[in-house]
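Shipment paperwork, digital attachment
Item: protein structure file
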Amino acid sequence: MLFVLLAQAGVLAGWFFTSNWKVDAGHAKVKFSVKGPLGDVHGSFTGLQATIRFDEKDLSGSSVSASIDAKTVSTGVGLRNRHLRTKEEWLNADKFPKISFRSKKIEKSEGGYKALGDLTLKGVTRPVEIPFTFSGKGGEGVFKGQFKIKREDFHVGKPGGSTGALITIDLEVPVKK
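Attachment content:
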């Protein structure tokens, strides 16, 4: 009986002390860059929504589920933003409003951690690996990561052409408990 009570207390303690993090969406940075015909094109998205469960001591119980509204894409050039949002060859945000990621596994890596999971963009889901670091103190922290995707894997842009094959995505996500 004592063993059962101790086991239940352990489960409850784990539940109360889970590391669920709330994203500070107003300060989160989701940026991208890709080679263009006249140099690198830089842009960003806003309004990150995410459910992050991360505990450095319990990576098997850690997970990330995140999405962003494709219509928030911004490159600083109005006409380009409109094309990215509306054109079928680019994001076509009316038809594909969300870009999302769902982890399947989080592991320790040489430089920090990596989230292995599925990225869905324009209705295409592909596995990706997102290397990241976490800096935390008390009830606050910051996740930082960078990864690359092949734009043609997600039907972004025309095949070949003057747009680079790889899109680099940079993440900086402040969180609070």
